[in-house]
Design the sequence.
């Protein structure tokens, strides 16, 4: 996993509540057995005028001019600004894979669905919970200032606006450490392999019926 | 000792190790695996040169991509077939407690086969790369969905890194009226607390109404905990739980049974245990529910009308309602009973068990589907449910009424196989998600109970099942 320290990037707005993982990556693309290549199909049903299927040449498909991410001014955006309960629905990790492959490194929202939030950290995307008033301000700024960019400093837990205004955010210390260092969870957990074995042996004695 | 919630009991009995910041290593007892969210995890494991930790924890099946008719022709879509074959290969290589591949008589939706085989037991931690793993919480266990990285993590370490959730008690007291069931309870709860209402919480469902539900009804309620924003929902163990499990293939037998039951009887919240949040609902007030929008919280009673966004003060919410109504092709203030449908889907891990099929069949018996209903699909949750239903003659009730009786699988719940809505088609569905495009691009989904789906199929529009029964 790629480490996340300080990231500065263009912001794109997606002004909706409850953006679900079916919208982020529709099910027909979940048939892939790979982790990569989902970017061109992120938000597929909103983004294109036609119906997408795996194997299509996405570069030749008609874009929906009304979908905000298709606007020229948001090309290359790496920070997604959105509303409440982002990532609700299915547990598909294809959703963060698609967002990452599209180019998003951070998502700012009023709240996130739990499983999606967790999946982001496992893939080097930083989900940041931003208070509603601050989000409202950011939506206004992004709309009125083409090229609007933010700098997100994970070690300092801050978002810096171009006007110098700084917003602090909370992040779980353990997840922060993993993300800042790009650590792989499995490696970390296996340092406790002895403890897992001890626990398992005790459990087998107390509750043998869970092991058959 | 301080009074504990069920969540605290289940949590503390699975902590392998805890960091000073509260991050804990939680042991996983049961790992359910299906074809969509596991290939990248097995591949990751192989690439890192790691072996699965304990394959006897694994129960696997293929359900999302499998067709529901013409099984003799195999899986036509090559991409789907490759995913199912990849699962076959991975499970053959690693081993498992049980594997129910495509066409096996015990194959079915992963959340149906776990409980019916007794592979889901009280006191366990149960995970699966699937958000509706919350279903298994009906058995008084900690059950929740995980992403593919976590599937790999559980394969490699038999553990997950987690922080304790907050706790929420949802009490539904009183009684349910005739024609009102577990699905209506689930939808009413979501309508009440919203799709983000349970975020960050583990929900315990309690109260007289929940206690009076069968295990299948409890599974329906827990299934939709995720739609209320909670990763997990569960119900305390009682006689109904224990009796359901007796004699199931992977349930303990002999002396282990008594020992297990003694322990399971402790799996309830203690008198006076404190929850971070308590929500209370009355069963009598719940009427048959129908969703009108593109989020499960956009729900109302069959006796109501499509809401008018004009009445909504919050601008983001109002816009969300307008967008939903536009997508759904509905005008504000239309009576729900006036909404005509094109298709009916009875199935999914929410409502494809034998009792669901019985409830639908009770409405359908001796009637015929309306002519404007192009397709009324009944998809049993598993091969065993299908057999049972056929033994009871339910299949004939459905087919005589013009319904289609299919092979088990996820089917039109998410339309990864050939069963789907065409753009603009309107469906009465017993599944759990009415998101845009969920049942097929442009398709319009209304979530209802099995009895209400059956009533809609007969009437050709939404109809109050209380008046039919
Ligand atoms: S039936 Fe639907 S919700 Fe349940 S596991 Fe299958 S796709 Fe997911």
Sequence:
């Amino acid at each position: 996993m790629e480490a996340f320290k300080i990231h500065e990037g263009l912001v794109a707005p997606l002004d909706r509540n409850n953006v679900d993982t079916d919208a982020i990556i529709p099910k027909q693309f979940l048939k892939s057995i790979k982790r990569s290549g989902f970017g061109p199909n992120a938000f597929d049903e909103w983004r294109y005028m036609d119906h997408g299927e795996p194997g299509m040449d996405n570069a030749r498909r008609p874009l929906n001019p009304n979908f905000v991410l298709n606007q020229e001014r948001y090309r290359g955006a790496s920070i997604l600004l959105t509303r409440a309960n982002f990532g609700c629905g299915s547990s598909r990790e294809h959703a963060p894979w698609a967002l990452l492959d599209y180019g998003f490194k951070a998502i700012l929202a009023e709240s996130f669905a739990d499983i999606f939030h967790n999946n982001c950290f496992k893939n080097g995307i930083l989900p940041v919970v931003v208070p509603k008033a601050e989000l409202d301000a950011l939506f206004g700024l992004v709309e009125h200032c083409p090229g609007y960019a933010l700098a997100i400093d994970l070690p300092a837990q801050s978002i810096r606006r171009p006007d110098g205004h700084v917003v602090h955010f909370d992040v779980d210390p353990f997840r922060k450490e993993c993300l800042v260092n790009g650590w792989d969870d499995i490696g970390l957990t296996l340092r406790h392999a002895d403890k897992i074995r001890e626990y398992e042996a005790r459990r087998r004695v107390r509750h043998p019926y869970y092991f058959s | 000792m301080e009074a504990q919630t069920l969540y605290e009991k289940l949590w503390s009995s699975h902590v392998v190790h805890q960091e000073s910041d509260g991050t804990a290593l939680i042991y996983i007892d049961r790992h359910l695996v299906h074809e969509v969210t596991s290939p990248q995890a097995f591949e990751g494991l192989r690439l890192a040169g790691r072996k699965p930790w304990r394959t006897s924890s694994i129960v696997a099946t293929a359900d999302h991509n499998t067709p529901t008719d013409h099984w003799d022709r195999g899986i036509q879509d090559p991409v789907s077939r490759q995913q199912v074959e990849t699962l076959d290969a991975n499970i053959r290589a690693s081993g498992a407690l049980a594997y129910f591949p495509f066409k096996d008589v015990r194959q079915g939706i992963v959340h149906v086969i776990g409980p019916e085989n007794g592979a889901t037991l009280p006191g366990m931690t149960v995970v699966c790369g699937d958000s509706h793993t919350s279903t298994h919480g009906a058995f008084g266990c900690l059950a929740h969905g995980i992403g593919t990285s976590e599937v790999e993590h559980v394969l490699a370490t038999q553990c997950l890194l987690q922080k304790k959730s907050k706790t929420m008690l949802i009490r539904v007291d009183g009684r349910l009226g005739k024609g009102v069931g577990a699905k209506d309870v689930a939808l009413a709860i979501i309508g009440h607390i919203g799709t983000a209402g349970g975020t960050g919480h583990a929900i315990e469902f309690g109260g007289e109404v929940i206690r009076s539900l069968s295990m299948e009804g409890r599974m329906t309620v827990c299934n939709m905990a995720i739609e209320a924003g909670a990763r997990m929902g569960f119900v305390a163990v009682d006689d109904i739980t224990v009796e359901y499990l007796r004699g199931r293939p992977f349930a303990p037998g002999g002396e282990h049974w008594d020992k297990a039951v003694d322990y399971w009887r402790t799996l309830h919240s203690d008198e006076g245990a404190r929850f971070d949040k308590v929500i209370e609902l009355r069963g009598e007030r719940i009427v048959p529910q129908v969703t009108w929008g593109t989020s499960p919280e956009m729900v109302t009673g069959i006796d109501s009308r499509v809401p008018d966004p004009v009445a909504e003060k919050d601008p983001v919410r109002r816009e969300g309602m307008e967008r939903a109504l536009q997508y759904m092709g509905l005008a504000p203030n239309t009576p729900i009973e006036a909404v005509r449908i094109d298709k009916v889907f009875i199935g999914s891990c929410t409502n494809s068990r034998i009792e669901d099929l019985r409830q639908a069949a009770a409405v359908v018996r001796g009637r015929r589907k309306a002519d404007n209903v192009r397709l009324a699909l009944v998809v049993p949750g598993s091969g065993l449910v299908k057999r049972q239903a056929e033994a009871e003659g339910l299949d004939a009730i459905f087919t005589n009424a013009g319904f289609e009786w299919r092979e088990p699988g996820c089917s039109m719940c998410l339309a990864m196989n050939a069963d789907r809505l065409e753009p603009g088609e309107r469906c009465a569905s017993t599944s759990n998600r009415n998101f845009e495009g969920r049942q097929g691009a442009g398709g319009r989904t209304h979530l209802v109970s099995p009895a209400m789906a059956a009533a809609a199929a007969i009437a050709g529009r939404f109809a109050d099942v209380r008046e039919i029964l």
User: Anything to note?
Assistant: Chain B touches chain A through 79 residues (CB under 8 Å). The two ends of chain B are 50 Å apart (CA to CA). Chain B has a mean pLDDT of 97. The longest helix of chain B spans residues 78-94.
